[in-house]
C-alpha cells in the first residue's frame, strides 16, 4: 500500500470511527422519524444533486434494503446527462418543486436530502417543499463546509428537522498532495452511504421485531424472486422507479 493509499484509508476509517460516536444521537433521531413513517405506511424519499444523488440510488431496490424508500432521480440534476449543466441546475432557483411534485409526496412522509456544501438552491428548495406539505426533512451535510461558504445564504442545516453533520472539510477531498497545494480523495459519498445504511439497518431491526420489515433480498438468494415480487407490487404505486 502506498503512502497516499494508506492516508486515504486511514482518514476515512478515522472519520467513520469518530462519526459513530458524534452522530449516535442524531442517527437515533433520524431512525425514530423513519420508523414513525414506516408504521404509518409512509415513504422515505432520498434526494441529492450531483454526486450526492448516489445516496438515492444506494437505497433503491437494494439487497438488504427497505422497500419503502423512494429515490428522487432526475437526469438533469445528476451527472450522466451533462455534469457541467447539472452544476448550474442545482444552483438555479425554482426548478425543484415541479420535479418533486411528480413523486406525490404526502404529509407524514420523510425526505432525506444529501448536500455536502449545504447551500445550493435545489436541496434547500426540496426541504422547503417537503415541510410545506407536512413531510419531515433529514439532512446529510457538512456544517463546516456550508458555514464557510454561506455568506448570508440559507443552509440546508437551517431548514431540516434532523441534521446529520458528516464532519467533512470544505471541498470534500482529504488527502494533501505534497508540494502542489491540491487535495484528492473525496469522502462524502463513502461517509454518506455508511450513515444512511446504518440508519436503515436500525429501522429494519426495529420493524423486524414485529415481523413487519419489508426487506429486499439479493436476486441470487433462495426465495428472493417471490419476496421481492411481493414487495414491488406493494410499493410500486408510489415509486416510479420500480
From TrEMBL:
Any one biological process term the GO annotation gives: carbohydrate derivative metabolic process
InterPro entries: RpiR-like_SIS, SIS_dom, SIS_dom_sf, SIS_GmhA/DiaA_subfam
Residue ranges of domain SIS in the record: 30-209
Regions crossing the membrane: none
PANTHER family, sorted: PHOSPHOHEPTOSE ISOMERASE, SEDOHEPTULOSE 7-PHOSPHATE ISOMERASE / DNAA INITIATOR-ASSOCIATING FACTOR FOR REPLICATION INITIATION
A Pfam cross-reference name: SIS_2
Protein name: SIS domain-containing protein
Classification of source organism: Bacteria, Pseudomonadati, Pseudomonadota, Alphaproteobacteria, Hyphomicrobiales
GO molecular function annotations of the record: carbohydrate derivative binding
SUPFAM superfamilies, per database record: SIS domain
Amino acid at each position: 500500500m502506498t503512502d497516499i493509499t494508506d492516508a486515504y484509508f486511514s482518514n476515512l476509517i478515522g472519520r467513520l470511527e469518530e462519526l459513530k460516536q458524534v452522530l449516535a444521537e442524531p442517527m437515533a433521531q433520524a431512525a425514530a422519524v423513519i420508523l414513525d413513517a414506516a408504521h404509518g405506511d409512509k415513504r422515505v424519499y432520498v434526494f441529492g444533486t450531483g454526486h450526492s444523488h448516489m445516496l438515492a440510488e444506494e437505497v433503491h431496490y437494494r439487497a438488504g434494503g427497505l422497500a419503502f424508500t423512494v429515490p428522487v432521480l432526475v437526469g438533469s440534476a445528476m451527472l450522466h446527462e451533462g455534469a457541467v449543466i447539472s452544476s448550474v441546475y442545482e444552483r438555479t432557483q425554482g426548478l425543484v418543486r415541479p420535479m418533486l411534485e411528480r413523486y406525490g409526496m404526502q404529509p407524514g412522509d420523510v425526505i432525506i436530502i444529501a448536500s455536502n456544501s449545504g447551500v445550493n438552491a435545489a436541496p434547500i428548495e426540496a426541504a422547503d417543499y417537503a415541510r410545506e406539505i407536512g413531510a419531515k426533512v433529514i439532512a446529510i451535510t457538512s456544517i463546516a463546509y456550508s458555514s464557510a461558504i454561506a455568506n448570508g445564504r440559507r443552509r440546508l442545516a437551517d431548514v431540516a428537522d434532523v441534521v446529520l453533520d458528516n464532519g467533512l472539510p470544505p471541498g470534500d477531498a482529504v488527502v494533501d498532495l505534497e508540494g502542489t497545494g491540491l487535495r484528492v480523495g473525496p469522502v462524502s459519498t463513502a461517509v454518506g452511504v455508511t450513515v444512511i445504511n446504518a440508519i436503515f439497518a436500525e429501522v429494519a431491526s426495529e420493524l423486524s421485531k414485529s415481523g413487519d420489515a419489508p426487506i429486499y433480498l439479493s436476486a441470487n438468494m433462495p426465495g428472493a424472486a417471490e419476496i421481492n415480487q411481493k414487495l414491488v407490487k406493494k410499493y410500486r404505486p408510489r415509486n416510479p422507479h420500480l
